[in-house]
Predict the structure.
Amino acid sequence: MAVKRRLGAVSDINVTPLVDVMLVLLIIFMVITPMLQKGVSVDLAKTENPRLMPDADKEDATEIAITRDGKIYLGSTRINLDEIKSKVEDRISSKLDKTVYVKSDARAKYGDVVKVVDEVRAAGVDSLGLMTERIENRRGGAAAGPTAM
């Protein structure tokens, strides 16, 4: 005669669904994170007393980046030096705030930065922001957000 056993509650946690969900979330974050970066990444110059520029983080801010090898980017699009004036004029023509933010790699040639600033000024901007990073001191941390010299 067969003895029927009564099955009790299983006290082990089934982690398989949890692992599946976590792997899907990890993949989503790995795919989305590079797309969140706005513009081109450069190693900004460091200063001790920069001003905060919260408007530089806005979605419609006009931003020009200069890499250490002299390449120029308007947003994330690579442009030539002679195209800066016309493209900046097109971008700022419909805006009330005609501010352009220039971020340059700390090791970019000074002459390249000056040429870009001259072209941006020739486009008729109201103000120009040179983006920098704050030097961390012993007492406090770095400033949050873009800063200017």
Notes: The longest helix spans residues 16-36. Residues 8 and 115 are 78 Å apart (CA to CA). Strands lie at 46-47, 51-52, 62-66, 72-74, 77-79, 99-104, 127-134, 147-148.
